[in-house]
Amino acid sequence: MKEYTFDPSIDCARALDKADELAAFRNEFYIKAERIYLDGNSLGLLSKRAEQSLLDVLDTWKEYGIDGWTEGPNPWFYLSEQLGEKMAPLVGAKPEEVIVTGSTSVNLHQVVSTFYQPNGKKTKILADELNFPSDIYVMQSQLQAKGYDPDEHLVRVKSRDGRFIEEEDIIAAMTDEIALIVLPSVLYRSGQILDMKRLTKEAHDRNILIGFDCCHSVGAIPHSFDEWGVDFAVWCNYKYVNAGPGGVGAIYVNQKHFQKVPGLTGWFSSSKEKQFDMEHVLTPAITAGAFQIGTPHLLSMAPLIGSLEIFAEAGIDRLRSKSLHLTSFMLFLIEHELEGMGFTVGNSHLDERRGGHVFLEHAEAARICKALKENGVIPDFRAPNGIRLAPMALYNTYEEVWHAVQILAKIMKEEQYKKFENKRGVVA
Ligand SMILES: *Cc1c(COP(=O)(O)O)cnc(C)c1O
């Protein structure tokens, strides 16, 4: 772990906040005074700028009606491409390689249906056994759609310890039967960052296409997709990117694949000039825009306009650096305050292997989360025994991290969690 100098006093937390050059961004967000929100990795908070950009799109509708497609401050017809351009720096891509569209699961259907082209012996998709369920369901149904039995053709790399996936194990599974690899950039439970650069090189050395689900990394850590040569990626924008519940997601397609016809097409896959010719022969865009299907969900996309302005000002490198500092401070306090209380830290202590959240494991995790909520701390429970705590660089403070750990220690000492059932809620 990189050496940080912390001490467990609240003064240390306050000094860290004072020295924080990103501190002012907190004022951009709607923060509840009585609440410490540590769930920005499930649903980021609303910023005033995201709210304003949503209101602006509504206003365009009010003012222009149908002409809002081509008039007003953000003509709707070009917005998906424009926002893709603005997201490109977050993933290390060229402006035309990113399109804001769809949702992660649908976008994954799109890229798998495009890039999974079984051929001869190469018929299998490689994933991992700690993968997010939706991604697994997508790959299973895409295998079925092409006539392959998912039980046999979806290979899941095993975890040695139930937390992490070793890159060596993934590489060892890159056999000559693998046609496509789809992996998370950051594992949603342990927060492990996979070495995307190394895996991409190893996959390409074996003539295998590779792409990543970056739901837990976009807005949290920098990416260099072009430099690494990644073939494709998908992600959502309602987690670290704060674009609102159900906010529109995004797809990255490496420029070298622009000639490929997407697996799922619709009229928004068209080149912009041709779309309204209404021909029955599709002329796909020669950009990631070809991977769109239908009319963009403007109202679910609008908050992203304001949110990305904030990211452009804060800069992903500064955000990453503060995020690491926040999670390191939290881990330091956990070690200091929660010893002997039955917690296991389930994330990596190494900066280069740790995403934006801390993952605590505890047999009573479900009801500890309920007690945290009752005390104003918003965590994220992941069955069966995981507590995710995600201090956000844009809007959480070191002092909040300090209080959250103090509250957790108090809950354990007073056994407050015992008054709740150790069962998850409907959404957890
Ligand atoms: C959040 C998340 C999803 C969610 O997909 P939706 O289509 O937006 O519901 C999928 N995969 C991963 C890895 C996620 O973290």
Q: Could you please describe the fold and organization of this structure?
A:
With 428 residues, this protein is of the alpha/beta class. It folds into two domains: 10-30 and 316-419, Alpha-Beta Complex (Aspartate Aminotransferase, domain 1); 51-313, Type I PLP-dependent aspartate aminotransferase-like (Major domain) (Aspartate Aminotransferase, domain 2), CATH 3.40.640. The protein is built from 13 helices and 13 strands. The strands form three sheets. A seven-stranded mixed beta sheet has the order 2-8-7-6-5-3-4, with helices on both faces. A four-stranded antiparallel beta sheet has the order 9-10-13-12. A two-stranded parallel sheet has the order 1-11. α8 (196-205) links the parallel β5 and β6. The chain is globular, with a radius of gyration of 22 Å. Residues 103-105, 132, 134-135, 184, 188, 213, 215-216, 236 line the site of pyridoxal-5'-phosphate (PLP). Keywords: Hydrolase, Pyridine nucleotide biosynthesis, Pyridoxal phosphate. InterPro entries: Kynureninase, PyrdxlP-dep_Trfase, PyrdxlP-dep_Trfase_major, PyrdxlP-dep_Trfase_small. Catalyzes the cleavage of L-kynurenine (L-Kyn) and L-3-hydroxykynurenine (L-3OHKyn) into anthranilic acid (AA) and 3-hydroxyanthranilic acid (3-OHAA), respectively. Homodimer.
